Amino acid sequence: MTLTEKILARAAHRKSVEPGDNIWVDVDVLMTHDICGPGAVNVFYQKFGRDAKVWDPDKLVIIPDHFIFTKDQRSHENINQVRTFAREQGVKYFYDTGEGFDGTWATMSNGYKGVCHIALAQEGHNRPGEVLFGTDSHTCTSGAFGEFATGIGDADAALIMGIGKLWVKVPPTMKFVVHGKLPTYLMAKDLILYIIGDIGIGGATYQAMEFAGEAVQQLSVEEKMTLCNMVIEAGGKNGVIEPNEEVLAYVHERTSQPFQVVKSDADAKYRVVKEYDAAKIDPVVAKPHSPDNRDFAKNLGGVKINRAYIGSCTGGKITDFRAAAKVLQGQRVSVETFIVPATREIYDQLHSEQVNGRTLAQLFKDAGCIGPEPPGCQACLGGPVDTIGRANKDEVVISSTNRNFTGRMGSKQAQIYLASPYTVMASAIRGRITDPREFLG
Amino acid sequence: MDIISGKAYVVKDDIDTDVIIPAHYLALSHTVPAQRDELASHAFEGLPDDKYPVRFIKPGQTKSEYAIVVAGDNFGCGSSRAQAPGAMMCAGVAAVVASFYARIFFRNAVNAGLLLPLESMQRLCDEIRTGDELEIQVKERTLLNKTRKNNYTLKPVGTVADILAAGDVFAYAKQLLAKGELKGPVKANHNTGNWVEAD
User: Fold this and answer.
1) Which CATH number fits the domain A3-12+22-169, given the four candidates 3.30.499.10, 3.20.20.10, 2.30.110.20, 3.40.920.10?
2) Which residues, in sequence order, are bridge partners of residue A103?
3) pLDDT tens string A248-277
4) Domain A284-440 class?
5) CA–CA separation, B66 and B97 (whole Å)
6) Which B-chain residues 1-30 have CB contacts (< 8 A) with chain A?
7) B100 touches chain A (CB under 8 A)
8) 72-91 in A: which are within 8 Å (CB) of B?
9) Going by fewer Cβ within 10 Å, which terminus of chain B is more open, N or C?
10) ipTM for this prediction
11) In chain B, which residues have their Cβ closer than 8 Å to the Cβ of A134?
12) Is the confidence at residue B29, as pLDDT, over 90?
């Protein structure tokens, strides 16, 4: 069996499963946030009764992150609603904005963490071999820890809240092997955009995407999260990577809960195995309006941009900012460039980690960037009209985020190009799409 | 529902959830009755105006004149927002007929019992036009285009047939719990259908 099949078989108390089997699995972690949590809570009480209790309040993790730094009243009501629910149910892991929060960073409680997929990892909720569902399509990010993780809607979440189980169809697995060492100018974002461009936006629909090979195992934990984060952009049900020592060390540092590492069998059956040579991949850019609209930075020098955005679960981790800083090297950006860390931990790191005597935060400020802004999903998905960095007219944006659908960052008139933090920062310096090799040598 | 009839609204491939319901409306939910009309009024608002000059819902309206959405490949790709099928349901859509679906959209539609996601054998989004009068015989798996006098066969609903028959995943889970085929912290009472605590 593949890694995915073995995890699902164990969670279903079966010796084995095959792709296409419909099974009920035990849920180890259910994650929800401020924009799908209220729907899940409503459905839970509607279906199980007003007095119903969550199956295991310690397995439910609630992380407000989407519509946070806004004056929008409804968004605040949603946060209040999940807070009330968390209290009623005795939810231990609720990363609260605090009751005194008024939409500004100054009033934010220390309990608040930021973008759910990254906070899950940092707070010790990602563990190999487990089954994690979340009311967010990028829940697949957690597959970087060798677990089965996928996005669901609010009804499925409500069912899990009630019975602790969910039915899943066992997906066939597609294996993606990236051979060779990763060139210094490439990041996980390039690999996943390259693969999505190869198989198309629906190319992995209903399937698991397992990543392997030297270039994949060489990636940092954060970069592995980027790889798995975007499998949904090819329609993938889950992304997964066999955990190595570095991943296990990351997990052990953050949780004392026991877990069991699962690996694919030598005779595992894959629906397809696709192989790539890392050295032959150029820095990738996904053009408007689809993540599979693949091109290469070297071909797009004629595209002028007027905004750059580095942030989100996909491209707002500490490794993403280190990469952006590496490209900067004392230069200034020529377009408005937003620095939006995914989580509080990363926000703090930006203010403490130094390069040549300056903090990363200071380095970005000195280069003319905007931020570091408060951590959260922010403009990756547009959000309320007062969201920082939201495209409100016909901006041409190059972004380290995950989606460039029409209207994704706000206005339908905006054009969004997706790329690695290297390429985003190189483009921000030049004011046009730029191959990062012009700076990285 | 045995027969679904009404006008078609036709869209092409890879219609994503940001297009079906733009993110800034996600503070609304179809699970709150008082918010349903407002959510409905924004359904398919993200469709590009040049490609879709005929809009799904007229400005200021809360009900669409189209009861059936016809689509190409990968309908509902993108986010897990249940507000996507939710907004469509609130606007009056009873069924979608697509070549295939993104999996979270499909699950949301079926498991929450919001609308019926059917799959076509052919690429119907190139044969049916917006405004055509359609009639779907669900059990017979046929779609009749009354305007163009064409009849099509749809794919079997497959593994989710039992959930569709039960109404939603909660009713389905109750049936399994009542029969002992599923075990959980709660079970369902055979006679009343209510949830009760497991022993």
Assistant:
1) 3.30.499.10
2) none
3) 999 999 999 999 999 999 999 999 999 999
4) alpha beta
5) 13
6) 14, 16, 18-19, 22-24, 26-30
7) yes
8) 72, 74-75, 77-78
9) C
10) 0.96
11) 80
12) yes
